[in-house]
Amino acid sequence: MIERQQTKQRMSRVVKHNGTVYLCGQVCADATKDIKEQTQTMLDKVDELLIESGSSREHMLSATIYVKDMALHFAGMNEVWDAWVPEGHAPARACVEASMARDVLLVEISVIAAVK
Length: 116
Fold this sequence. Notes:
Blueprint: E1 2-7, E2 12-17, E3 20-23, H1 35-52, E4 60-67, H2 70-84, E5 92-97, E6 107-114
Parallel strand pairs: 4-5
Antiparallel strand pairs: 1-2, 2-3, 3-6, 4-6
């Protein structure tokens, strides 16, 4: 069975299937902030969605991170990411430079996790 949560016409924020949680891309709460603040509030949203979905950071399987400019923002994003990921629970990860849906966005993440 497939369970969709917070579904709109274009996408669902969460999809659950066979004990796996798929989150749509998450961005920051305030795009006027710097990369560290954008990354932290983006990860706060991931935390909320994982908990609501019966999962957690410790159950992340995969993360794909999109960074607007790797030369400018990769180190700052990684500083926040490294502090956020629980020791011993790092997911498989890809990080790529990408154009964003809005010019002020610096980072976006998509996460796949196991249900607890």
